[in-house]
Amino acid sequence: MTNWSVILNIAKTHLLTKMKSTVTASLGVTFGIGAYITLVSFMTGLNQMLDDLILNQTPHIHLYNEIEPSEDQPVSLYKDLEGAFNVVHSVKPKQSQRKIHNAIPILNYLKKDQGVRGATPQMRTQIFYLSGSIELGGNLTGVDIMEEVRISNFRDYIVSGSPEALRNLENGILLGAGLAKKMSLDIGDRVQVSTVDGGIFPLKIVGIYQSGIADIDNIQSYANLKTVQRISGEAQNYITDINVKLHDISHAPSMAQKLGNQFGIKATDINTANAQFETGSNIRNLITYAVSITLLIVAGFGIYNILNMLIYEKMNDIAILKATGFSGRDVQLIFMSQAIIIGLVGGFLGLLIGFGLSVFIDQLPFNTEALPTITTYPVNMQFRYYMIGILFALLSTFVAGYLPSNKAKKIDPVRIIRGN
Amino acid sequence: MDCVLEARHIDKHFRKPVDFHVLKDISFSVKQGEFASIMGKSGCGKSTLLYILSTMDTDYTGELFINGELITGRSHQTLSRVRNEHIGFVFQFHYLLSEFSVLENVMLPAKKLGARTHREIEMDAREKLEMLNIGYLAEKRASRISGGEKQRVAIARALINNPTILMGDEPTGNLDSYNADNVLQIFKRLKEEQGLSLLVVTHDIDFAKSTDRIIEMEDGRIIKS
């Protein structure tokens, strides 16, 4: 049976009469929490942007035929030499075709799967871009453009022109931005491409593609699947890659393994392909939290100091409270509630300041050649961070308040009263 | 039995810095409506005894009864409650909470007890201040009033829960003779008008002489009571 209104009233009076210390202590928390919110929003925003830069161009599952040597060389199948130490020199890749066998039925199968958001066929081929007497090596990928736009943010990377234009024009091409610059070409111009076999085909530029990664933009272009198949002289079922997007990215590894076994082709999932990005994000998050926690610990020491001083100043008050019937627990609660009030007020202000700074950073212009879709600094605002922030504030003030208040609890009133 | 306070064979040692037997086999009682004073030289243990009787000091052997109830060995939580409800305490130095108003200081123990509503407590507190002729101070801050006034406020606070017994540790020790006399008259009036029991430790022989009973101590023993 604790009389909260009395305890809170005493705590409030202490805090109000010591306005300066209260404000200092609260500002410590405010600063810590504000910095945490700003840092975490900005850092995760950057993380997400960098991840998106790579991951959005990477399918959740990528199906293709890998050119690789057979795992079992003929000698290992020969029973008489079993257990012997065999050395095979000059191992060559297995003779196989680059196209996916039965690609169309596989596509149909994938499109019926509940967990699949979309599956797109692609045909990747090596070509030369001809500019006068100069030949530039590069890749041309045949895509089902509207399907690509539906399941990925492909549209964001078309910096001029539109995917619809490519769909409408059979001989269209989305030229890589680096290539366009090198060859001084723009929308409406024609570019000649030559296949490895030697055939030359003119294509009309309907758009410029810029991924933000220079190495890709210098070689990569996109055209309609049928066009690429025709240029290469292949049939309409010649598909070299299938990209799969899932509804839930976490199913990618298991699904990739299943598909690989089922169709006897290479299937890589996004996690395997981009493990290093995950590592980078984790380390950046770690730094964010380390900095925030350090700030809060500093704020916590501030609160600890101020409460400690307050308790020394209030020795007489504590003795008198105890003599008139307040228990040690009541006295502890008085000082604990002061710490918690400082934490709540400081923390809440910190959230506001963090929010304000996040909004401000979100407005700052951020233009870079590499990222055509980004115009302002990326900020990731999530309610979760604000919850963590206020919990942090309460936790640190609780710990900082506990030790001094415990001391106040144990103060022996007789010693204080006699001491005077 | 109408003993409000009874001590049986109380012994106490100070263990630091050296073992010192400060109270030796103290037994006495205070009756309902009695105004008793404890006298003795400095260091004879009278204040120590008072802190034991007030339940604040629990480091002793022997038995202590308040209102016929055994207090020795109870938990700190219970002792706080007993102090809150049954004991009013007045110190040599005023000991008010300086950041609170006079009225809030007086009301605090009653608010802690929580037996009455805020309005009732406030009415009662104003009544008590009025009775001690300091009603006009109610709204002032405790740090802004004079020493004699502070002591009267402390008495009002000690009375707010209508305690069984009022204890004083040199309540007039820090006051000039006019204010000291004033406090004495207040104590006497409380005893006569309300039948309050009082137990006061004092140096002041004149003060002691005007009480019902003088308990004299020397070297940790009661030599006359």
Automatic annotation (TrEMBL), chain A:
Pfam families linked: FtsX, MacB_PCD
Source species, domain of life: Bacteria
Keywords from the UniProt entry: Cell membrane, Membrane, Transmembrane, Transmembrane helix
Signal peptide coordinates: none
Transmembrane segments: 21-43, 286-312, 333-361, 383-403
Location of the MacB-like periplasmic core domain: 22-259
Keyword Transcription regulation: no
Record keyword GTP-binding present: no
ABC3 transporter permease C-terminal domain boundaries: 290-413
Membrane topology, from the record: Multi-pass membrane protein
InterPro entries: ABC3_permease_C, Lipoprotein-release_system, MacB_PCD
Cell compartment(s), UniProt: Cell membrane
Major localisation: membrane
Family note: Belongs to the ABC-4 integral membrane protein family. LolC/E subfamily.
PANTHER family attached to this UniProt entry: LIPOPROTEIN-RELEASING SYSTEM TRANSMEMBRANE PROTEIN LOLE
Name the record gives this protein: Membrane protein
Native organism: Muriicola marianensis
Automatic annotation (TrEMBL), chain B:
Domain annotation ABC transporter: ranges: 5-225
CDD domains: ABC_MJ0796_LolCDE_FtsE (cd03255)
Alphabetized UniProt keyword annotations: ATP-binding, Lipoprotein, Nucleotide-binding, Translocase, Transport
Gene Ontology MF, one: ATP binding
Keyword Transport: yes
Lipoprotein listed as a keyword: yes
PANTHER family: ALPHA-D-RIBOSE 1-METHYLPHOSPHONATE 5-TRIPHOSPHATE SYNTHASE SUBUNIT PHNL, LIPOPROTEIN-RELEASING SYSTEM ATP-BINDING PROTEIN LOLD
Family the entry assigns: Belongs to the ABC transporter superfamily.
Descriptive protein name: Lipoprotein-releasing system ATP-binding protein LolD
Organism the protein comes from: Muriicola marianensis
